[in-house]
Each structure stands twice: as structure tokens, then as C-alpha cells.
Amino acid sequence: MENKLIELIETYNDFPRKGIEFKDVLGIIQEPKIFKELILKMSSSQIIRNAEAIISIDARGFIFGSAISLEASKPMIVARKPGKLPGELSKKKYSLEYGENSLSIQKKCLQKYNSYAIVDDLLATGGTVSCVSKLLESNGKEVLGLLVVVELMKLKGRFKLKFPVESSITF
């Protein structure tokens, strides 16, 4: 399956900024059989099985997190960029490979569950995932691990995290 996935991921040089090699995973969802195979694989992870809930990261993480949530019968909450969520929020700023941003989680969503699997499309520097884990931990929650479709190994994001990382493809 790995070779099939690699063929479906397109690289865009100098996007969104000069010097960045953007890996576009959206080709995967255009191939339902491969997408399903990927979701079945990710859903069977011990990290997913042991977590009470899934937290997906804005925006492409929602695609994979939603599908995994359905397949694994796990609730899903979202970590969103500024101005996208109503209500009382838990917020944190983070650094990206190409800038700075912040993420928010609705506090009421965090009340029901104590252990989480983080799902995103890609792991680069680890800044986004680290932000989500710190948000969860600051609310007394446990992060069991991270599942991503793509991991950019040269950026060493996994080494900044204190929990297991499972990636379907590495570049």
C-alpha cells in the first residue's frame, strides 16, 4: 500500500513559502479503495484502540480523523485555527515550518474524555502536534500517540514529541 500512497501524494515546491516542499495528500481521498485501505490500517492502531477519543487537527486532519473515528467507533473532537470555533476555548500559539499560528479546542468537548489519539495528515517539525498535546495536557488530558499519513523525517518532528508516532509514509 505504501507505494500506492506515495504515487498519490503530489509535491509542490515553494508552497506556501519559498523553500517549502508541500506534500499534498488530497490525491488519496480521490481513490476510494486506497483511502479505505489506509483508514482501515490507521483505525486498527493500538493507539486508536486505547484512546477514549480522537482529536483531529485543522484542516486536512479532519478528513482522516473523521474516517478513523467512524471506523473505530470513537468520538472525535477538533483543534481549529483562530476564529473557527464558538464557545469557551482553550487556546495555544505554535510555530510552523513557515510561520506562526494558534489552535483552539472547545473546553466543553474536553470534559467527557481523558485519553486521546491525535490524527493529522502530516508531521513536519512537530509544532502543530506539540501545540495540541500541550493544550490537552494543560486541561489534564493524556495523549496516547499520534497517527499521520505522511512524516517528513528530515524535519525530525517525532523527536520533539513525548508519545508514540505512527506514520503510513515517510519522506
Structure description:
This protein is of the alpha/beta class. It has a single domain (2-170), classed as 3-Layer(aba) Sandwich (Rossmann fold), CATH 3.40.50.2020. The protein contains 6 helices and 9 strands, in the order αββααβαβββαβαββ. A 5-stranded parallel β-sheet has the order 4-3-7-8-9. The protein has a two-stranded antiparallel sheet with strand order 1-2. β3, α4 (60-72) and β4 (76-79) form a beta-alpha-beta unit. α2 packs across α4 (60-72). The longest helix has 13 residues, at 60-72. The radius of gyration is 15 Å and the shape is globular. The mean pLDDT is 96.
Broad shape: globular
Query: What is the mean pLDDT?
Result: 96
For the terminal residues, how far apart are their CA atoms? Answer: 15 Å
Strand content: 25-35%
CATH architecture classification name: 3-Layer(aba) Sandwich
Runs with pLDDT <50, length 5+? none
Structural class: alpha/beta
Please tell me the total number of domains.
1
Roughly how many Å is the radius of gyration? 15 Å
DSSP strand tally: 9
Mind summarizing the main beta sheet? Answer: 5 strands, parallel
- The fold-level CATH name is Rossmann fold
SSE pattern, N- to C-terminal: HEEHHEHEEEHEHEE
Number of separate helices: 6
Strand order of the largest sheet: 4-3-7-8-9
Which assembly state applies to the chains in this document?
Answer: single chain
